[in-house]
Design goal:
Layout (H helix, E strand, L loop, with lengths): L2 E18 L2 E19 L5 E7 L1 H11 L3 H13 L4
Antiparallel strand pairs: 1-2, 2-3
Length: 85
């Protein structure tokens, strides 16, 4: 478990199809970074830093963006405008 994860470095990009638990059945192509550096805290309050690549990067990017309401609203407009819901 990570507390308040932040992306502190990134490199490269790739596009893959992703879905959202809030919009079942809707999948869109989403570009994300290929490699990121993450800084966070563990459940005991100790700092944690690590590098993530591939699928782990996609999960971390998704989790950190969904904590920002402006990013979620932008993403929601893009998904609903380009799909039939």
């Amino acid at each position: 478990m990570l507390v308040n994860p932040e992306i502190v470095g990134e490199d490269g990009s790739e596009t893959m199809t992703e879905g959202c638990l809030s919009l079942p059945g809707v999948q869109v192509a989403v570009p994300r970074r290929f490699r990121i550096d993450v800084a966070a805290w563990d459940v005991f309050g100790h700092p944690v830093e690590f590098e993530a690549t591939g699928l782990q990067t996609r999960g971390a990017c998704s989790a950190t963006k969904c904590r920002r309401p402006d990013a979620c609203r932008t993403r929601q407009r893009r998904v609903t405008s380009s799909s039939t819901v």
